[in-house]
Amino acid sequence: MDLSEQDRLALEQLEEELWREETRFDRERMMEIIAPDFVEFGRSGGIYRREDSLAISRQPIDAVLPLPDFEARLLHPDIAQVTYNSAVTYNGVVQRARRSSIWSRIPGGWILRFHQGTPYDT
Question: Where are the beta strands (DSSP E) in 20-92?
């Protein structure tokens, strides 16, 4: 199974929306792309549900975009996994993580079901 270039670009754009302040803190937009049954195993080790993600207070996001080492692959015709590395600066300190997300195709696009961030040092 090959992922079309159109789907790869759509998934990359969706992931980047999670790292852009103007979209990440737009609750309506996040409700469109984060599934009701969403679960995240955060870089911190915490477990977060959809409502936890939607409740995050607006804050500056200083992330490297485009997402480094972005890759996407189909696990099933309507399920894709994306992986990439993140580098985000908080209070002058760069935090790096290897990221993985699972997206499901729904009518009209993709919805985020699962995300995990694992810290790493360069």
Answer: 34-41, 47-49, 71-76, 79-90
